[in-house]
């Protein structure tokens, strides 16, 4: 980790030339906790989120709430086919409509014609060919949202329809779907002896479907032109600096002429990481000279952002007669969709974690990610790791059945620990209490069976008063262990910058880390409260005038941005204490700050922080940069990850073997968290992760037939509701601090997302005796009950 020399912090969030009248999220903190009780304070306390009251009262400003004088509305014309050549685009019918101010296509992109987070392979607007259903072709600005939509629909595109490639297995031999070819990446991992064999061999074929991030609030944005020819874009970005650079390149402008201002983010799990809105809006705003806003419908939201990679997994596990793993063989195929996005990262995680949190002496693993004419895939929480968890845990269940062992026992005989090697050759140097986590969920008492409760209290699969017959209900218990990596991987330069400024009794934190629901703003307040003994801490709004802090996700803002805030706060603390220490002839290390007071080790000095700060203005800027990683080599070997986090889940389900319906009765979770920084916030994150995992296991599947998205709405795409959420028992949080991480904390929300679906699938297998090898679990997979071969 490094820190910068003291220097004047950059200008705060600017208003630009024509700022929107609605204020972006951030700024003044709201009161927390009970209004009659002392507020929780500092790290380790259950500090309430800074925005909780605004969100509860409906005053929190999301992008969809923004407005500006002279506002125009935008709409996008999207492809009606998953694959077709564009013969012609006729925009005249749209341009001629009353109220329409501008229509833009690929011809209006004056800079780089394509963009992308890893590879610039995705056009801002389709040019010669459309490669997925719903790909943007043109955009319209009009004086009313209905007019804009009608005008977009009036654009006439003549196509030469082509046969789409929707099966990723066929992509290898099909004609190129993109000038860069169909293979996005291949990772051949070889570890140990490829010819090693075991006494017992089990095989399996597994499939994981396409999951949508399904944001609570659909995407929206506002673009405002600037007098210098540039543009300001107000949107719920989770990586504003990358979005700015992508948009500026498409506009043919230097980055300093494009500004991204982050509005309130209504939840994000990767779906906020694209430039699908910024480029069309910016072009329209600069063309018309007016502010332009768009608010997507739910259907457009489903079509416009990336999804979890659908995955096909073939596995063969070798073990000895005692159930100890000898070798894992796997072939992993990810459907990347039409464009690259972050598919390379997802494949690296999938291949690296293909054996799971288990000790494996030998491994032969091949992973591919290919282009198809399906919707683009990208970053969704736990990408890569979730898909392989479903497969390797299915294999562990098969191994247990073959050997006649308890499923938890066969896992316990193989668990990973600190000091062991991953199949990538990387040594696990962080805390890895996998055995402790498994023991915790294994020893937790099971929930009572329905026969122990009055029949009126039963909640059958299928919901209250469902058609199910109690006699057809079978209960199953399943286990799963999962792992995720922290921060970026394979040489990603993770760095964040933060400035802490103190003026009297008020502190302000300026950091471009976006609060996307993970609680960074609250954590930043806690850090400053803990370090400086101040109660009132403001978090400045985020925009690209500030130094970059990278994308949200994988716990990076807790680690990297939180580390930068801590370093800056400690530098201010030194500035505060140095004059007092010099006056009494002692070092600053002999002074402490607690409960708003500064005291010396011997009690000679005692004053309040407010008195020491009176009339002063202090500030410092610092950076945090974790130790570097390296790309995987041609054999899939390398120290590719900064750190790892682990979880163990036990799921209890009731299955109606006549209807195929499944109810998750209880989920017991044990997780290694490093250090609990905010107990209430931590629990909320874990419960949300488990619930999302249940959706992955049972209901969430975006149906695509021959490249065409079917029923892109929340009626057909079934998200879990409060009625689907089981009892969630957090049975143990292992606080073994990671010494290389600031505060010793680990990310918490991804691990239960990765692990819960596999535990639910294992429980359904236990209840029915049937092979459950597909997520989400289809009703027909749970119908009927078979005898276990073991």
TrEMBL record:
Low complexity: bias regions: 18-33
Database matches in Pfam families: Ald_Xan_dh_C, MoCoBD_1, MoCoBD_2
Gene3D superfamilies according to UniProt: Aldehyde oxidase/xanthine dehydrogenase, a/b hammerhead, Aldehyde oxidase/xanthine dehydrogenase, molybdopterin binding domain
Domain of life of the native organism: Bacteria
InterPro entries to which the protein is assigned, alphabetical: Ald_Oxase/Xan_DH_a/b (IPR000674), Ald_Oxase/Xan_DH_a/b_sf (IPR036856), Ald_Oxase/xanthine_DH-like (IPR016208), AldOxase/xan_DH_MoCoBD1 (IPR008274), AldOxase/xan_DH_MoCoBD2 (IPR046867), AldOxase/xan_DH_Mopterin-bd_sf (IPR037165)
Region span, Disordered: 1-44
Domain Aldehyde oxidase/xanthine dehydrogenase a/b hammerhead, residue spans: 57-163
PANTHER family (alphabetical): XANTHINE DEHYDROGENASE (PTHR11908), XANTHINE DEHYDROGENASE SUBUNIT D-RELATED (PTHR11908:SF157)
Protein name per Swiss-Prot or TrEMBL: Molybdopterin-dependent oxidoreductase
Taxonomic lineage: Bacteria, Bacillati, Actinomycetota, Actinomycetes, Kitasatosporales
């Amino acid at each position: 980790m490094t820190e910068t020399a003291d220097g004047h912090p950059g200008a705060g969030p600017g208003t630009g030339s024509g700022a929107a009248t609605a204020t972006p999220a951030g700024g003044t903190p709201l009161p927390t906790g009970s209004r009659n009780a002392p507020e929780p304070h500092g790290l380790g306390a259950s500090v309430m989120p800074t925005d909780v009251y605004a969100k509860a009262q409906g005053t929190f400003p999301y992008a969809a709430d923004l407005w500006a004088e002279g506002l125009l509305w935008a709409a996008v014309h999207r492809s009606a086919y998953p694959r077709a050549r564009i013969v012609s685009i006729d925009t005249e019918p749209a341009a001629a409509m009353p109220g329409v101010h501008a229509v833009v296509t690929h011809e209006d992109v004056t800079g780089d014609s394509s963009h992308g987070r890893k590879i610039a392979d995705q056009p801002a607007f389709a040019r010669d060919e459309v490669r997925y259903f719903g790909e943007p072709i043109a955009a319209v600005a009009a004086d009313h949202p209905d007019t804009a939509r009608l005008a977009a629909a009036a654009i006439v595109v003549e196509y030469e329809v082509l046969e789409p490639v929707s099966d990723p297995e066929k992509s290898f031999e099909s004609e190129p779907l993109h000038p860069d070819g169909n293979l996005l990446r291949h990772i051949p991992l070889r570890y140990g002896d490829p010819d090693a064999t075991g006494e017992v061999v089990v095989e399996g074929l597994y499939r994981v479907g396409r999951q949508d991030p399904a944001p609570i609030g659909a995407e929206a944005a506002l673009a405002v032109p600037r007098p210098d020819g540039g543009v300001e874009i107000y949107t719920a970005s989770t990586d504003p600096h990358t979005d700015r650079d992508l948009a500026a390149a498409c506009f043919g402008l230097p980055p300093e002429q494009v500004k991204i201002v982050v509005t309130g983010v209504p939840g994000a799990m990767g779906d906020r990481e694209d430039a699908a809105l910024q480029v069309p809006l910016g072009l329209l705003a600069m063309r018309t000279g007016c502010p332009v806003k768009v608010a997507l419908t739910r259907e457009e939201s489903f079509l416009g952002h990336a999804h979890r990679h659908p995955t096909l997994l073939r596995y063969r596990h070798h073990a000895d007669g005692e159930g100890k793993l000898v070798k894992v063989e796997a072939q992993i195929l990810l459907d990347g969709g039409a464009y690259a996005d972050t598919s390379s990262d997802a494949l690296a995680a999938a291949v690296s974690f293909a054996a799971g949190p288990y000790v494996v002496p030998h491994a032969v693993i091949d992973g591919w990610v290919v282009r198809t004419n399906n919707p683009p895939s990208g970053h969704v929480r736990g990408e890569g790791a979730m898909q392989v968890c479903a497969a390797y845990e299915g294999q562990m269940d098969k191994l247990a059945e073959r050997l006649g062992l308890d499923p938890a026992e066969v896992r316990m005989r193989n668990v990973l620990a600190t000091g062991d090697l991953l199949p990538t050759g990387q040594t696990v140097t962080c805390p890895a209490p996998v055995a402790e986590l498994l023991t915790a969920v294994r020893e937790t008492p099971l929930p009572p069976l329905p026969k122990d409760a009055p029949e009126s209290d039963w909640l059958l699969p299928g919901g209250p008063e469902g058609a199910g017959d109690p006699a057809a209900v079978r209960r199953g218990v399943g286990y799963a262990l999962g792992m995720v990596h922290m921060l970026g991987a394979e040489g990603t330069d993770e760095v964040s910058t933060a400035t802490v400024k103190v003026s009297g009794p008020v502190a302000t934190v300026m950091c471009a880390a976006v609060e996307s629901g993970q609680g960074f703003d609250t954590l930043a307040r806690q850090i400053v409260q803990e370090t400086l003994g101040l109660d009132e801490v403001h978090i400045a709004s985020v925009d690209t005038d500030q130094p970059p802090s990278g994308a949200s996700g994988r716990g990076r803002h807790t680690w990297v941005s939180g580390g930068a805030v801590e370093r800056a706060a400690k530098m201010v603390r030194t500035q505060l204490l140095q004059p007092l220490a010099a006056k009494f002839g002692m070092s600053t290390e002999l002074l402490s700050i607690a409960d708003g007071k500064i005291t010396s080790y011997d009690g000679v000095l005692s004053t309040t922080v407010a008195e020491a700060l009176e009339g002063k203005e202090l500030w410092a800027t610092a950076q945090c940069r974790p130790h570097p990683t390296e790309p995987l080599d041609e054999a899939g070997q390398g120290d590719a990850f900064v750190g790892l986090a682990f979880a163990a889940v036990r799921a209890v389900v009731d299955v109606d073997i006549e209807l195929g319906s499944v109810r998750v009765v209880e989920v017991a979770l044990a997780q290694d968290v490093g250090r609990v920084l905010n107990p209430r916030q931590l629990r909320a994150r874990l419960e949300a992760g488990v619930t999302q995992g249940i959706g992955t296991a049972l209901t969430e599947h975006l149906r695509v037939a021959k490249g065409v998205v079917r029923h892109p709405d929340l009626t057909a795409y079934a998200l879990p509701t409060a009625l689907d959420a089981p009892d969630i028992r957090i049975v143990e949080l292992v606080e073994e601090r990671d010494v290389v991480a600031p505060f010793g904390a680990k990310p918490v929300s991804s691990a239960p997302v990765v692990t819960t679906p596999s535990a639910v699938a294992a429980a359904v297998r236990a209840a029915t005796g049937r092979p459950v090898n597909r997520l989400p679990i289809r009703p027909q997979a749970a119908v009927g009950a078979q005898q276990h071969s073991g």
